[in-house]
């Protein structure tokens, strides 16, 4: 079984892996972009490209939780490892107004350490969601609006931020993600750029959640960093790809070690039943969300590994219906 630090370091060096830090509604994501120059070999828990960067400063007290969630697409699923801290240890400053934090002396790149960091004041539990800039005109506007909510409709600061595209920096108790690319919006055709990007979704912020209800985070724990190992069924842009058995087996190893109770057991039991030719009429659908995801993903994974058959189709008709318990395929949301 892999040691946590080793698994994460390997992930830093896998261009098909993804990362995020944030909350349910404010998240910074780090991904590689195909065709970009190769990133430097990471010897620690840090990676930087021209588009963004991630650094994990500590794993002290971390509880890794590996899990699979359902995709609305019946031939796919998503996978993740959440690095969690106890709720009281995960809490950040929860500022609810725009606040200058001074030069970002702990920036990942030396050239960014004189730029000014501003907490956006989103009051999120496990992340201080910030912007960073050396643009004197933007700094003047932001400093003039300090102490006000960015979400006030008449606050000019948010419009200035969207126009200037400063760096975004997500700070947690475990480390940081930095995004150097433009903010998705009018200047990017209404879509987030490929690779590192951020989302601030006010509707989700109002839910006051630390994570999706479909992420099986244990009670009393909060996810502070998300690691998304290479998917066996989808590419970097979310496109379908041929089943990758090596990537599948790799994540199953992580799931065996850090998976939630009920999910791993349900999958193995379903695979045993399918191997034996057992009818779905003999199976009782589990009562927990976590185990139901295990049941449905076991059917999908069996089909991707072994091909279609009347038996697996019967299981899918019995148990893998509709999009109940499915998550949008957007890591961290």
Give a verbal description of the structure.
This protein has helices spanning 4-12, 87-90, 136-144, 156-164, 202-205, 245-258, 263-275, 289-306, 310-319; strands at residues 18-22, 26-31, 46-48, 52-56, 63-70, 77-86, 99-103, 116-119, 128-133, 167-171, 175-179, 197-200, 221-228. With 333 residues, it is an alpha+beta fold. It has a domain at 4-89 and 210-319. The strands form two sheets. Strands 3-4-11-10-9-8-7 form a seven-stranded antiparallel beta sheet. A six-stranded antiparallel beta sheet has the order 5-6-13-1-2-12. α7 crosses α8 and α8 (289-306) packs antiparallel against α9 (310-319).
- Rg computed from alpha carbons, rounded to a whole number of angstroms: 21 Å
- The number of distinct β-strands equals 13
Task: Kindly report the spatial arrangement of strands forming the biggest sheet.
Answer: 3-4-11-10-9-8-7
**What fraction of the residues are assigned to beta strands by DSSP?**
15-25%
Q: How many H/I helices? A: 9
Helix content: 25-40%
Distance between the termini: 29 Å
Which of globular, elongated, flat, extended, rod-shaped describes the shape?
A: elongated
Compact description:
The chain has 333 residues and is an alpha+beta fold. It is 27% helix and 22% strand. Strand 10 and strand 11 form a beta hairpin.
Q: Can you give keywords for this protein?
A:
six-stranded antiparallel sheet; alpha+beta; 13 strands
List the helices and strands and how they pair.
Blueprint: H1 4-12, E1 18-22, E2 26-31, E3 46-48, E4 52-56, E5 63-70, E6 77-86, H2 87-90, E7 99-103, E8 116-119, E9 128-133, H3 136-144, H4 156-164, E10 167-171, E11 175-179, E12 197-200, H5 202-205, E13 221-228, H6 245-258, H7 263-275, H8 289-306, H9 310-319
Antiparallel strand pairs: 1-2, 1-13, 2-12, 3-4, 4-11, 5-6, 6-13, 7-8, 8-9, 9-10, 10-11
